[in-house]
Design brief:
The complex is a heterodimer of chains A (1115) and B (305).
Chain A: H1 16-23, E1 29-30, E2 34-37, E3 40-43, E4 50-59, E5 63-69, E6 72-83, E7 87-100, E8 103-107, H2 111-114, H3 117-123, H4 127-130, E9 135-137, H5 143-157, E10 160-163, E11 176-185, E12 192-202, E13 205-218, H6 220-231, H7 233-256, H8 265-282, H9 291-327, H10 333-357, H11 363-382, E14 391-393, H12 402-419, E15 426-429, H13 431-439, H14 443-451, H15 459-475, H16 480-492, E16 501-507, E17 523-526, H17 531-541, H18 545-554, E18 563-569, E19 573-580, E20 591-598, H19 602-606, E21 612-617, E22 624-628, E23 634-638, E24 644-648, H20 651-654, H21 661-678, E25 682-689, E26 694-701, E27 720-723, E28 726-729, E29 732-739, H22 743-747, E30 753-757, E31 771-776, H23 784-792, E32 796-798, H24 803-806, E33 812-816, E34 821-824, H25 849-855, H26 872-897, E35 904-906, E36 913-919, E37 931-933, H27 940-949, H28 968-976, H29 978-981, E38 985-990, E39 993-1000, E40 1003-1010, E41 1019-1026, H30 1031-1047, E42 1051-1055, E43 1058-1064, H31 1068-1085, H32 1088-1091, H33 1096-1114
Parallel strand pairs in A: 3-13, 8-10, 29-30, 30-31, 31-32, 35-37, 36-38
Antiparallel strand pairs in A: 1-2, 2-4, 4-11, 5-8, 5-12, 6-7, 7-9, 12-13, 14-15, 15-18, 16-17, 16-18, 19-20, 19-25, 20-21, 21-22, 23-24, 25-26, 27-34, 28-32, 29-33, 33-34, 38-39, 39-40, 40-41, 41-43, 42-43
Chain B: E1 2-5, E2 10-13, H1 14-31, H2 36-45, H3 50-74, H4 80-105, H5 110-138, E3 163-166, E4 171-174, H6 176-192, H7 197-206, H8 212-237, H9 243-266, H10 269-292, E5 299-301
Antiparallel strand pairs in B: 1-2, 3-4
Helix pairs in contact in B: 1-2, 1-3, 1-8, 1-9, 2-3, 3-8, 3-9, 4-6, 4-8, 5-10, 6-7, 7-8
Classes of the chains: A alpha+beta (1115), B mainly alpha (305).
Chain lengths: 1115, 305
């Protein structure tokens, strides 16, 4: 705060003594000719400044001036000035000493008329007179100007004021003129003594002077707070923080009071208390039954059924849409119709939900509407796209047309265009041409009919279907428009008819996250005359068993993987091969790997030929770190008539390196540029022609993710069976050895086996989901098969010499790929039976991401609220979930309204259940009876639950080790607990629905279940709350219940002692099983919280329950 | 309906103060920014000295942040882990910032230079955000003059060591990144005397690539700490926290925060971003004008540090 140091008042007149004496008087100070009141101003909580009344009389020819001066203070300010001539900012500190904190002058005449400058100076009338008493401290500041600024600032704050002529003189007794003036003191004036000087001036001289002091003090709360703030600053700060935190929490509690489902913990606690009291009262009181409540329940249940029907219908429409869109382009009217139906249904469902819940989710309708608007806008825009071409030179490919030519072609075009690397003259036959082919003669629907029923677990059938599909494609007539376009573009790309061509696949999605490595055919050295047929052959390879299997396993949609084909001039390669910009197995290492052969390189990329391997430093100048020169007896060259042929090499060439050192460096630099450009490690196919020109033939991402770090060391006593080889995918695997030398043996690979093979071909893809690890005798880590293995993340070693002999079939073995070793026995038993992770989690739908995101994609947190629903699927799931939640409230309301026993269920104590039939839940004859037997209740979920609930074996044991159930102790417990169990339980039932709510003492349990023919609608949910024991024990009990439910594959959420568990999508028999388990659980839990005191009880009791459950199922 | 404030030593109208607090709370709840940029000038306009205005404002923001955080945590949009990490950085940053300011002041009027930097930064952030969010909003596909649009970059953030998972934000980044962001926010807060919210929120959005709703919740949680710290320090060193004023403001700001948070859920992320971008730009413009216009009074109160 401002430093307030007061100056002693200035005395210059004998009259001062009188004035001082008067100032001590509390109410008013009377001077010789004037008075001021009040003299004490108290600033309390509601202080808003004060007004001093100054009145008096002066001589007839006199003028009056009233000067009000506050305590003198030091004021520190920043002086603002121009910096760099443009901007304004603080340039230095300026301190004013002895400036009054409050200064006001009110006069009856203009200042100049009162007297000479000297007199005014003496009497401090006017701002300029202040200057003499104020010292200004500051380097560059001009004093006069600074004081002027101070005055302006203070005037702005209402603290300084000059009001000449403001005092009006009246008429009074002869010779005297009275005056009265109200002098405002603003609230921001500093407390202290304010001097009020009333000056009578006549003829330029001072005639009389009255000085009065008005004391301004803080009192009450402001005073206390001010003292506290200044004396105990830190404490005050903490207090303020605490106070504001409390305020924040308080407002939050108030604000969230209405949201019933997610109450504030404090409110929950209070309500729990209230409920306890209420409970005690209710036990002695019975309210009359209310039939309209039952009627309302009927209505609610009917709505619920409608919603369930809509739910299953919509899920079906959604599934159809996914299926349809994975075969048909989404712009097709069939798909659009599905989308429209989905939106209409979802809007209906939201309507029903809102009727059911009293419009609690009114927002959801807006979500659906905005999704609808987005989706149809998107569809409208998509259809405006420019028509696509059938064939496109690579030089003309740009971002807008990238989708039509497949990833391989786009990547190459980018390499050429943005990196300036040389690629062979190329063009792409687009996806449009592929579609054209499929549309002609109904090929697409034939293929769909053939492939849709194919199943992954029936490999024989799959192969048959695929072969047929391939034949269909190969024999299909080429649309003339396509053949024409191909011919035209070939000529436009200056690829003369005599030139050999390479025809490769360039599938959409190929070369991205999924590599499709080596799945499609590549035709090399194709003469122009056979180009169209080669195109069709490549397209047909899309339907090879291997490729179809891969797509299915990866969850790719058929429309998404439409096939574009890349046609390149054949490079007359002197040497060619593959480069990995990171070494597999060492993704963070500083080396790259080159595999090179003489002549053409298809065998190098397939990983079947003997090739030179060079390990090269990634940093310039790219030194060769390791060099393995293989003996290459022959090399591949293009034959005259098309196709390839092996030609023997001369003896000295056989052992010569395929690449010179300079070429290695050039290649490494190019590959690293590509890696930098694409931002991830690359797998590059390359060739040098006879002139030494480098061509990039293909570039795609390389899979190098780290496998999880192996846990622990290999035990020292472990017996080593085989070692060596190169890591394809690090990690460990344990399983029985399966040695496969022939394709037939491969086919017989059992699930979870450690596969040992002499070599691995790309069609191994169908084996990969079944094996836990792979050991290969011969093969390169750069081959296609290795890429696939990496994609499945299977721990594997390639090139382990003598593996086939060292590993006996059927023997249990452990592979430590990162440690290059295979050991006898199961060293890490926990790994046994672990199979490769699925390729790509979600099944793709064939809809573009934007569309799928609005329609089919599920977001993880959509249950949080309507705002979190991002897609229509979210909305549907949310509506279903919330409808179930609202059914829980039936139970709440039943218990609260105390409906009398609608029908009593005949059952042995300690169970008392009252049944409310909402329709079809009772056998026809039972409707008229007062009480019904359990067998007369025909509700599927009720029967399931009842089976468990009436099973007397499920009472917990108190003994340390749970013994056989049904002991004496147990019986006692049930009997003694029977009074608490005696409170009624209500079951609302229909033939397929159950809502059971029970409150036993402080336990509150709701079971809600719907079981029908359609699993999509079925659910079993349970909610558990309260308990008589201490919070900790209740918490433990909730944990136990959660643990047991989780073990039974329920989804569980625990909030405090409120536990909700649910499972959806079961068929009705499985649902009934779950309900029986819940019945057991309810019985088991009923008194357990009293005994659960330690955390490890949770596990023990959960295991005891699991054992008992297993026994019950066996019985 | 006025009340005398003991520390600010001024009398203020109660409804006016509650309304001012409400407005600031609304901003906090919607965007996860503190709102001091608005509150301080508003209070100064009502005759409260800037020093007290800033200190008491931060106390009021503390209350709003409490309510906002609770409200958000119920919707599960607060990443506490990330919030703590940011705050750890923020604490380091504030201390470093104070030292830096002392050091800079030896060379002359550093404040103004920092101000210019701040304007440039706000302007850049605001413009980028506006362009980006309008673009997502309209989902327009923009033709590029180059043949190929640049590839979506694997951001440099993934290359940093010490990756930590923040499950609530659905991100996995090096812990260094949020700490560095916290430091930046803290330094700015110390240098400029403003909360780091304006810088933090865009950083969380674009560098950490978090979802807008989680950004708001987490930012509020983080502000809880910063404003609490500022309040205690101001009270201890400068005695400038007026708790009567703060409580008055808090009445409005907490309610505003609740309303803001609920509105925020109704708005889509890109709409929120556009609004925030406009506000950021507005602040940039205001600071620019303040800096360029000749002030009516060449003196200004010394702000507490």
């Amino acid at each position: 705060m401002r430093d307030a140091r007061r100056e002693p008042g200035r005395r210059r007149h004998p009259g001062i003594g009188v004035a001082l004496a008067c100032a001590l008087a509390p109410a008013a100070a009377s001077g010789a000719f004037s008075s001021v009141e009040p003299t004490l101003v108290e600033a309390g909580s509601f202080y808003d400044g004060a007004t001093l009344r100054v009145r008096g009389t002066i001589g007839e020819r006199s003028q009056v001036a009233i000067r009000v001066t506050g305590p003198r203070e030091h004021h520190a300010f920043n002086r603002r000035g121009r910096i760099a001539g443009v901007i304004w900012g603080g340039i230095e500190h300026v301190t004013f000493h002895h400036a009054p904190s409050l200064y006001a002058v009110y006069t009856s005449a203009a200042l100049g008329a009162l007297g000479q400058q000297a007199l005014r100076q003496q009497l401090l009338l006017g701002y300029e007179t202040l200057a003499a008493h104020i010292e200004v401290e500051g380097k560059g500041a001009d004093k006069g100007e600074m004081i002027e600024q101070l005055v302006r600032l203070k005037e702005g704050e209402g603290l300084y004021r000059l009001a000449p002529g403001a005092v009006r003189l009246g008429d009074g007794p002869p010779g005297r003129r009275p005056f009265e003036m109200a002098v405002p003191v603003p609230a921001i004036a500093t407390p202290g003594d304010i001097e009020v000087a009333v000056l009578e001036l006549a003829d330029g001289a001072l005639v009389g002077e009255d000085l009065a002091r008005v004391r301004l003090v803080r009192v009450g709360m402001p005073a206390a707070l001010f003292r506290l703030a200044h004396e105990q600053g830190a404490l005050f700060g903490l207090l303020a923080v605490f106070l504001l935190l409390v305020a924040g929490v308080g407002v939050d509690v108030l604000g969230s009071g209405r949201a019933r489902r997610r109450m504030h913990p404090a409110v929950v606690m209070l309500m729990g208390l209230a409920r306890g009291v209420d409970d005690a009262l209710l036990s002695s009181r019975h309210r009359p039954r209310s039939p309209e409540e039952v009627g309302r329940m009927h209505a609610k249940y009917r709505l619920f059924r409608t919603l369930l029907a809509l739910n299953s219908e919509l899920l079906e429409v959604l599934a159809d849409l996914e299926e349809e869109s994975s075969w048909t382009p989404y712009r097709h009217p069939r798909v659009r119709m599905g989308i429209r139906a989905l939106f209409d249904g979802a809007a209906d469902m939201v309507g029903v939900l809102n009727t059911l819940t009293g419009h609690r989710y009114f927002d959801l309708a807006n979500v659906v509407a905005s999704l609808r608007a987005d989706v149809f806008k998107l569809l409208a825009r998509e259809s405006e796209r420019e028509p696509s071409q059938l064939a496109l030179p690579l030089r003309e490919v740009k971002s807008e047309t990238a989708g039509q030519v497949g990833d391989k072609a786009v990547n190459l075009a980018r390499v050429e265009c943005d990196l300036g690397l040389r690629i062979p003259e190329s063009f792409a036959v687009t996806i449009e041409a592929y579609r054209e082919l499929l549309e002609t003669g109904g090929l697409a629907s034939q293929l769909r009919g053939l492939l849709a029923p194919a199943r992954l677990d029936a490999p024989e059938d799959l192969r048959r279907r695929c072969e047929q599909a391939q034949r269909l494609v190969r024999e299909a007539p080429v649309p003339p428009s396509v053949a024409e376009a191909i011919e035209q573009v070939r000529r436009a790309c200056s690829l003369p008819a005599g030139e050999g061509l390479a025809v490769r696949s360039s599938a959409a999605g190929e070369g991205s996250a999924l590599s499709f490595a080596g799945q499609f055919e590549t035709y090399l050295n194709v003469p122009a005359s056979r180009l169209v047929q080669a195109w069709k052959d490549v397209v047909a390879s899309r339907f090879s068993p291997r490729a179809v299997f891969y797509r299915r396993a990866a969850g790719l949609a058929e429309v998404d993987t439409a096939m574009a084909v890349l046609v390149q001039r054949m490079v007359r390669a002197r040497s060619s091969g593959v480069l990995f910009s990171r070494r597999p197995g060492e993704p963070r290492g500083s080396a790259l790997l080159i595999t090179a052969v003489r002549g053409l390189g298809p065998e190098a990329s397939a990983g079947t030929a003997r090739a030179d391997e060079l390990v090269v430093s990634r940093s310039p100048p790219h030194r060769i770190l390791e060099r393995h020169i293989a003996r290459k007896p022959e090399h591949l060259v293009g034959a005259e008539a098309g196709g390839l042929e092996h030609r023997a090499l001369r003896a000295e060439e056989q052992v010569q390196a395929s690449l010179g050192d300079g070429e290695v460096a050039q290649l490494a630099a190019a590959a690293l540029a590509i890696e930098r450009y694409f931002g991830e490690p690359q797998d590059v196919e390359w060739a040098f022609d006879a002139e030494g020109q480098l061509f990039i033939l293909q570039a795609r991402p390389l899979r190098t993710e780290q496998a999880e770090a192996p846990e622990g060391e290999v035990p020292r006593q472990a017996r080593l069976l085989a070692r060596g080889g190169e890591v394809v995918w690090p990690g460990r695997a344990v399983g029985p050895v399966h040695v496969a030398r022939t394709p037939e043996e491969e086919e017989r690979t059992p699930e979870g086996a450690l596969l040992v093979v002499p070599r691995l071909l790309p069609d191994c893809v169908r084996l990969l989901p079944r094996v836990c690890g792979i050991v290969v005798e011969r093969g390169t880590v750069t081959g296609h098969a290795a890429s696939l293995v990496r994609e499945f993340r299977i721990p594997s070693l390639f090139g382990v010499a003598g593996a086939l002999e060292a590993l006996a079939p059927g023997e249990m073995a452990s592979l430590d790929a990162a440690g290059h070793g295979v050991y006898a026995g199961a060293l890490w038993p926990e790994l046994q039976g672990r199979l490769p992770a699925a390729l790509a989690g979600d099944r793709s739908t064939g809809l573009p991401d934007l569309l799928a995101g609005k329609l089919t994609k599920l977001s993880a947190n959509a249950f949080m609220g309507t705002w979190a629903c991002q897609s229509l699927h979210d909305v549907i799931r949310f509506a279903h979930e919330m409808a179930i939640q609202s059914m829980f409230e039936i139970g709440d309301r039943l218990l609260d309204s105390r409906i009398g026993g609608v029908k009593r269920l005949d059952c042995p104590p300690p169970l008392y259940v009252h049944v409310v039939d909402l329709g079809g839940g009772l056998r026809p004859g039972a409707a008229s009876k007062e009480s019904v037997a359990a067998e007369e209740v025909v509700s599927t979920p009720f029967q399931g639950l009842w089976r468990g609930l009436s099973d007397p074996r499920f009472e917990p044991q108190r003994s340390e080790r749970p013994g056989p159930f049904g002991s004496v102790l147990t019986t006692t417990m049930v009997t003694s607990g029977s009074r608490e169990l005696g409170a009624p339980n209500y079951a609302c039932i229909t033939d397929s629905y159950l809502n059971l709510s029970s409150r036993q003492a402080y336990h509150f349990t709701v079971v809600d279940s719907f079981l029908s023919e359609d699993p999509n609608n079925n659910h079993v949910s349970m909610r558990l709350r309260g308990g008589g024991a201490a919070p900790r024990q209740r918490g433990l009990r909730a944990e136990l219940a959660a643990e047991i439910l989780r073990r039974n594959h329920f989804s569980v959420s625990v909030r405090g002692d409120l536990l909700t568990g649910w499972v959806r999508g079961l068929d009705s028999a499985a649902g009934a099983e779950k309900l029986a388990m819940i019945g057991h659980l309810i019985r088991y839990l009923s008194r357990l919280d009293m005994w659960m005191t330690e955390r490890d009880h949770v596990k023990r009791y959960a295991e005891a329950f699991a054992r008992a459950e297993a026994e019950a199922v066996a019985a | 309906m006025s009340l005398f404030l003991p520390i600010a030593q001024a009398s203020v109208s109660i409804p006016l103060m509650v309304a001012a607090g409400g407005m600031v709370g609304l901003l906090s709840g919607l965007f996860g920014v503190g709102g001091g940029f608005l509150l301080t000038p508003l209070l100064m306009f009502m005759g409260i000295s800037p020093v007290v205005a800033a200190a008491s404002g931060s106390a009021a923001i503390l209350a709003a942040a409490t309510t906002g955080t609770l409200e958000h945590s119920r919707a599960s949009t607060v990443d506490f882990k990330l919030g703590f990490t940011l705050f750890a950085g923020g604490a380091i940053g504030s201390v470093a910032g104070v030292e830096l300011l002392h050091w800079l002041n030896r060379f002359g009027p550093a404040n103004s230079v920092i101000r210019v930097l701040y304007v440039v930064m706000l302007g850049t952030i605001g413009t980028l955000m506006l362009v980006e969010s309008i673009r997502t909003w309209r989902r327009g596909i923009y033709m590029s003059e180059r043949r190929f649009q640049p590839l979506p970059r694997r951001s440099w953030t993934e290359a940093l060591p010490g990756a930590v998972r923040f499950p609530k934000s659905e991100i996995e980044v090096s812990f260094l990144l949020p700490v560095a962001m916290g430091v930046l926010g803290g330094v700015l807060a110390a240098l400029m005397g403003v909360g780091g919210g304006f810088v933090m929120v865009p950083l969380m959005l674009y560098v950490l690539r978090m979802r807008m709703h989680v950004v708001v919740g987490t930012s509020l949680f983080q502000i809880l700490f910063t404003s609490g710290l500022v309040t205690v320090l101001q009270a201890a060193q400068n005695h400038t926290v007026d708790c009567v004023l703060a409580l008055l403001l808090a009445t409005g700001s907490t309610a505003g925060a609740v309303i803001g948070t609920r509105w925020g859920r109704r708005l889509r992320a890109d709409q929120l971003k556009i609004l925030l971008a406009l506000i950021v730009l507005g602040v940039a413009v205001k600071v620019t004008v303040d800096t360029l216009r000749t002030p009516s009074v060449l003196l200004s109160h010394v702000a507490g540090e």
